Amino acid sequence: MNNRNLSDFIILPCLILLASDAGITDVRVKRLSEPTIDNKTSILARYVVSLRTRTPFRYYGDNHFCGGVIISLTFIMTSAHCLIDSQRLMLSSRDILIVAGAPNRLKYFRHKNVHAPVAKILIHENFTIYNTNDLALLKLVEPLPTDNQYIAVMRLPTEEPKLGNKYTVLGWGRLFHGGPLASDITQITVTLYSHVACELMLNVFTDEMMCAGNMDHRDINPCGGDLGGPMIDDDIVYGIVSYRIGCGHIELPSVYTNIFGNLEWIDSIMSQNRSYRLYNCVAFLLLVININFYV
Ligand SMILES: *[C@@H]1O[C@H](CO)[C@@H](O)[C@H](O)[C@H]1NC(C)=O
Ligand SMILES: *[C@@H]1O[C@H](CO)[C@@H](O)[C@H](O)[C@H]1NC(C)=O
Ligand SMILES: *[C@@H]1O[C@H](CO)[C@@H](O)[C@H](O)[C@H]1NC(C)=O
User: pTM higher than 0.85 for the full model?
Assistant: First the structure.
């Protein structure tokens, strides 16, 4: 018993050091202003889920790898990138656990946290290595409970998001570039930029992408672990974090998948009820390069 405790004591700081070592730069700008959960964040947190592997590595919640958003009691929306592992293979639905109602990633509350296994992974047919249509839906085995006040369903947009407007992005991603994952869910406010501005700042930028940031002040961008999380206004989800090139950069925005532009696909998946068919992803998987959620 004592030995075990002693080794925990030694190993934990090492793990934290290792984790924060990845991709370290001189830029260590804290990207979020609210370290504790305030009322507004906890209200918005009801819509957000943590995508985890089936079992924790050492501690409850240390297996978080992406965010997602509840768009119906049986469907979670996330980034397609989140469903590809470090060996570039598509995860199996059996590998994933959705955790809802848990704004604190590391704490388990019996009547609050809901652990929902996934029945099907549905990746957008036009998702490519260039992050086009970076979107996926996860169909849950069982619908989420309706009597849990910590869980709520987000609405899909009925119009394009407005350029220049501010949107909220939520997640448990790294607190700064190379830093540790947040334990309490955090939120950032980003401004949506025009297509032309995004194209000027980014190398790869296609029509259905959106870019947003907050370059007037400090680095306010999603970081590793925030992929798949929602960009929202009130209870409407306009975007999904697609890639976080902005993390640690004051001058670079991050890229989001435009939900309004993908409504047709989302509706087609949610309305159909046909049995699972294998997606023709093998060719695509061979192409996928260098994916790392956390750096
Ligand atoms: C906090 O949110 C709850 C609903 O979740 C609400 O009833 C309460 O009035 C809010 N408190 C403040 C100070 O806004
Ligand atoms: C995928 O791309 C093809 C070719 O551009 C297009 O015809 C099709 O509608 C797209 N699918 C979806 C769901 O957007
Ligand atoms: C749709 O699928 C669910 C399970 O995924 C099943 O319970 C339900 O009966 C199906 N509905 C129809 C109309 O096939």
Answer: no
